[in-house]
Amino acid sequence: MAQFPFPTRGSLFRQYFFVLFAAVAVPLLAAGSSQAWFGYKDQRAHLNDLLGAEARTAAARISIFIEGIGSQLAWMVHLPWTEGADERRRIDALRLLRHAPAVTNLRLIDGASKERLSVSRIGLNRVESGDDASADPAVLGARTGQAWFGPVTYHRNSEPYMTVAVAGNRAAAGIAIAEINLKLILDVIVGIRIGETGQAFVLDRPGRLIAHPDISLVLRGTADRTAENLQALRAAILAQDGRAVAGTDPAGRAVVAALAPVQGPDWSVIVHQPAAEAFGPIHAAFWRLLGLLLAGTGFAAALAYWLAGRMTGPIRLLEDGAARIGAGQFDHRIDIARIDELGRLATRFNQMAREVAISRERSERIDRLKRFLAPQVAELVDRAGDDSVLDGQRVEVVVVFGDLRGFTPFSARSQPTVIMDVLGEYHAAVGATVNHHGATLVSLAGDGVMILVNAPVACPEPALRAIRMVIEMQATVQALAATWRARGHALGFGIGLAMGPATVGRIGSDSRMDYTAIGTVTNLASRLCASAQDGEILVDRTAAEAIEGGVPLVSLGTRRLKGFDDPVAVFAVAAGQGTDARPKSGAAA
To answer: Do the beta carbons of residue 159 and residue 183 sit within 8 Å?
Structure first.
């Protein structure tokens, strides 16, 4: 017997098969599940409405039946009693028995709680018996001002009866007490049908079954297990505010039931329908839906298998090509003669291989440059695409030197980790400022820095760019110095700036080369930096003249600097310029 060809775990075919299958089957199953769920919810809502309406209708009919009897009893006690026998009342009582078939016995009690009249369908009539009824529960209950309903009893374990007492609107009118045959309530219950087998029943306040289509259940009393099941069902419905709930009927079958109260005697009418019948439509719809889902998933499996088979060949080529490119064979090309997504993906792979080759070549070039150049200069050369800018040449440059004041005693008494933390913050601040203004950081040794502006790449107004850079740098480092002083480190920062011709280019050996500037201007900037106090920015005359009022400067006269025979004119950035350190538009271009 031929086996279904299915690759082992981890293969592209297997993965794409499951992805394609899930792409079709999962939405189908989700749609089917949601439809089944919402169908079930709709059926529950429909059952709640249907059963609730039937229960309310039955409760209303029972209430009307009881209220009608109460109204007739109230009519019997609307006038006060007189002395002696009242023939008119006897005639009215007999007329009530004729018009109210449910009343089997009627007693009239006067305002002094004496029995004045008793008429019965099954017993002897009594007139002016004078029996004391003051201790009768019916009399006591009726005197509260509302109709009194006694417990349900059964005559000869057959028909259910209930006593109703109604007091007149005045005490002298007395009380009418009637014994009512509840058979008519049973007729109401028997007439209720929900679906094919749904039924209704009535429970009194303690939970006694007083009406049910099967009268034998009623006659069993409260000691039977049936009453416990029905009481539990009523409690479950009341816990859900009268909405339809699932439970069991007296036969132990699963049912869906709803409840409506009967005002007055405080009864509960419960209607129920077998769950199998109630949810029959949704079950049938579910099986139909399940059949459609099985057919749909079968189709999805076949379609996924076919599509995965068609994709296996091109994907294997892509897999092999990706492996070759990952191994460094950037000249490898993936040949897939298709115009769909796979063909475009192969084209993208080929483009990626070319771009990776170019990126790798650029990275290798930068790595070679970084072996003998500062990282900033190496990046600049790479962006320019030509390292001829690093060749030795004579240019007008601005040289900036800066170092920390008090660093030597600080480093002598501080832990290495503290020193490295301070230098890390300091170098990060200086480097960020240099990059922001497009300058070149050629030396970063300990607490000293050397920066070139206008080399190796020329820029407009190099002096103005440099002075704005150092103003911002001084402000940034002074902010750091404030935090250092708060930690107990007495550190400051001084800057020297000079402008003039210098020889710039690569110097060093085969193993290490640097880009730097050589000339008098370099020495002058270094001496100005050494002469600067904490927070000062000292500028030489050439740079000051080149700035031409772009930033206010203050002349400090002349100073004798080491290595210079003649006194050197020194200028300083005016106080308060630290807030205007940002370059103007285009200054860093």
So the answer is: yes
DSSP structural state of residue 481: H
* Burial category of 200 from C-beta neighbours within 10 Å (exposed 0-12, middle 13-18, buried 19 and up): buried
Q: Of the candidates 561, 500, 569, which has an alpha carbon nearest to the alpha carbon of residue 526?
A: 561
Report long-range pairs for 127-132 (Cβ below 8 Å, ≥24 apart). Answer: 127/85, 127/90, 128/84, 128/85
* Cα separation, 196 vs 185, whole angstroms: 21
Environment class of residue 70 by beta-carbon count within 10 Å: exposed (0-12), middle (13-18) or buried (19+)?
buried
* Residue the block writes with tokens 């502006």: 453
Other CB atoms closer than 10 Å to residue 429's CB: what's the count? 18
Q: Is residue 228 a contact partner of residue 221, using CB atoms and an 8 Å limit?
A: no
Surface-to-core class of residue 84, CB atoms within 10 Å of its CB (0-12 exposed, 13-18 middle, 19+ buried): exposed
Number of Cβ within 10 Å of residue 293's Cβ equals: 18
Reduced to 3 states, what is the DSSP secondary structure of residue 408? helix
Q: Compare 47 and 95 and report the one with higher pLDDT.
A: 95
Q: Quote the CA–CA distance of 126 and 119 in Å, as a whole number.
A: 7
Q: For residue 584, how far is the Cα from the chain centroid?
A: 47
Alpha carbon distance 396, 455 (integer Å): 8
Encode pLDDT of 286-312 as tens digits: 777 778 778 877 877 777 777 766 667
Q: Is 272 exposed, middle or buried (0-12, 13-18, 19+ CB in 10 A)?
A: buried
Judge contact between 293 and 28, C-beta under 8 A: yes
Rounded CA separation 456/505 (Å) = 8
In angstroms, rounded to a whole number, what is the distance separating the alpha carbons of residues 447 and 28?
Answer: 69
Tens digit of pLDDT for each residue in 91-129?
A: 888 888 888 888 888 888 887 888 888 888 887 888 888
Q: How far is CA 572 from the centre of its chain?
A: 60
Q: How far apart are CA 122 and CA 511, in angstroms?
A: 131
Query: Strands across the sheet with 209-211, in order?
Result: 209-211, 199-203, 267-274, 254-262, 245-248
Task: Quickly state the pLDDT bin for 418 (edges 50, 70, 90).
Answer: very high
Q: d(Cα 56, Cα 65) in Å, to the nearest integer?
A: 14
**Residue 255, SS3?**
strand
Could you tell me which of 267, 285, 283, 286 has the C-alpha nearest to residue 275?
283
pLDDT band at 11 (very low <50, low <70, confident <90, very high): low
Distance CA 162, CA 369 (A): 110
